[in-house]
Amino acid sequence: MKKYGKRMRLTGILMTVALQLSCSLAFLSSCKRQSGEAHVTSAESKQAKAMLQGIWIDQETEEILFRAKGDTIYYPDSVNQPTHFRIVNDSLLLAHSSYPIVKQASHLFWFKNQNGDVVKLVKSDDPNDIFSFEQQSAPSPIVTNQLVKTDSIVMYGEQRYHWYIAINPTKYKVVKTSYSNDGVEVENDYYDNIIHLSLFRGAEKMFSSDLRKQMFNKQVPSQFLEQALLGDLQYDQVDSQGFHFTATLCIPDGGSCYLIEIIIDFTGQMSMKLLVN
Question: Is residue 248, in this structure, part of any structural domain at all?
């Protein structure tokens, strides 16, 4: 009977622990659900988004900055791509950037740009301002090059060589992120190029290949390469190492470039190295 009583007490203790554990898990689960529901509810301010609808003008310069329609911001410059936006926790979220909102009402919108300066906007009440947007067609990617072909004959030793370069525009889009005069992030689309390089020894083809910017991922940082264009390829010289060419990768409309040396040796093998950036 004593052993039976001990087993009963032990069973009771285990059942109590199990019940307490079950309640604790249920409580945690309930907390997570409530926390998740609260997060979803506060994820975006519909009221703030509704107040932002319309055309907004810089209070100081009286320049039209953007038009908010639905969940998209449109710019008067047709080169700039429309941008999806959200308003979360008193911040305007555009693409990859967040701008703290300083003051917002139905007729005004103040926020801090990337430099920390306060941009003060007022809502337009001029119905003619709509024409700054409605006259535009859909933004088209910018073509930075047209088909360019160059070739030349080179003598080295007693051999006659012929190189051929063709720069071919493509439909591959490169998105460049920049900032407007007010410090607001905008995106422009450009078309990249593919460059064909061929090298012949007399009638013998030594080398022939299409060069794409992804081939330079060991010489150029990935973040730069993502927004860069393969712009040009030029012949430099021939020596005992082989034929030297220089490829140019640049950020569109900017001064930042990488120069990559391409060497085709006399067996037709290609090698690359960074010249300057």
Answer: yes
Domain boundary among 91, 115, 134: 134
> How does pLDDT run along the chain (277 residues), one tens digit per residue?
433 344 434 344 334 434 343 434 343 344 444 444 334 344 788 899 899 999 999 888 888 888 898 988 888 876 677 888 889 988 998 877 888 999 999 899 999 887 888 989 999 988 888 888 765 544 455 555 566 889 999 999 989 999 999 998 888 878 777 776 667 777 777 888 999 999 999 999 999 999 999 999 999 999 898 888 998 999 999 999 999 999 999 888 766 889 999 999 999 999 999 986 5
- Per the structure, the complete domain to which residue 206 belongs is given by 142-276
Q: How many domains does the chain have?
A: 2
Q: Tell the residue number behind the tokens 């003060």, with chain if given.
A: 120
Of residues 175, 192, 183, the one with CA closest to residue 82: 175
Q: Looking at the structure, do residues 119 and 222 belong to the same domain, yes or no?
A: no
| Shared domain check, 261 and 163 | yes
- The whole-angstrom separation of Cα 1 and Cα 112 is 79
Assign 277 to helix, strand or coil: coil
CA-closest candidate to residue 157, choices 98, 45, 242, 223: 242
In a domain, residue 20? The reply is: no
Tell me if the pTM is above 0.90: no
